[in-house]
Design goal:
three-stranded antiparallel sheet; Arc Repressor Mutant, subunit A; DNA-binding; alpha+beta; homodimer; DNA-binding transcriptional regulator, MarR family (chains A, B)
Chain lengths: 135, 135
Amino acid sequence: MGVVARSVAGVLEIVTLPQFRVLVVLDNSGPLRMGVLGEAIGVLPSTLSRAIDRIVEAGWVRRTTRPTSRREVLIELTPAGQNLVTHALEQRRDNIAEILSVLSPDEKAAIVSAFELFAGAAGETSTEDLLILGI
Amino acid sequence: MGVVARSVAGVLEIVTLPQFRVLVVLDNSGPLRMGVLGEAIGVLPSTLSRAIDRIVEAGWVRRTTRPTSRREVLIELTPAGQNLVTHALEQRRDNIAEILSVLSPDEKAAIVSAFELFAGAAGETSTEDLLILGI
DNA sequence: CGCAACGATTGCAAGCATACACTTTTGGTG
DNA sequence: CACCAAAAGTGTATGCTTGCAATCGTTGCG
């Protein structure tokens, strides 16, 4: 739980949680249309529109128009936005790696198999659940 | 991660994250003075004062004056507020119990020792970290 | 008592998220 | 072409959080 909390903590000093959710979805799915994006994170189009205004202003995403349909607006991560998400995920991975570094290979192996066991029993975690925290 | 996310998800439909942080701190420490409470969750007194206004309005906490010093205001959970926090923690415990229920005693034992190993290696998790998500 | 420090609150202001209703532009279809 | 539906955005409004500065009551001390 501490690992999860810390991984969220860093990002929340830079962007808000709803904003981070947008970035995470885009990182997972690539550029998305406003409508699809809004549905993915569960907000109304008007809410998303203004949220994107602010995220564009901050430089994390870009609005693009698809050549085939000028009424559709594609949202895509800028390099900075991509960087932000990647960095956040790396930080958590590093945090875990650091924790594991003090353990012996046998201990690590035991942890890996136990975690896999637990994850298997937990079943598929819905993307929506993870999206709540942007993880 | 899914377990953590779900445990936060339910509560966030009832109170905001800053509000839930207040409740969690009170649940941990018992009734607190405004100043102490504000410092614990890292907000300015003015912010807290208005936040408490809303939480009192919602019925989760109560303002009390200490007999010895009438300028100090004690904040304490109402039964409803206590219930909210307790319920949130129970829900996470139930969620984990349900996951574990499909496993054999041996598997459970392996998971317990592996998790203890990991938690030990991770060291003490600072309360501040956990407070970010109200966990 | 009088004054300084303390503790909480309020005035004022800004930013963000959210919702409902409405408008504008665009695409598809009869 | 004319019309309808899709897609995005605006107008308007509400509520929460946060911050800085100022105020009000209270306590402690000389």
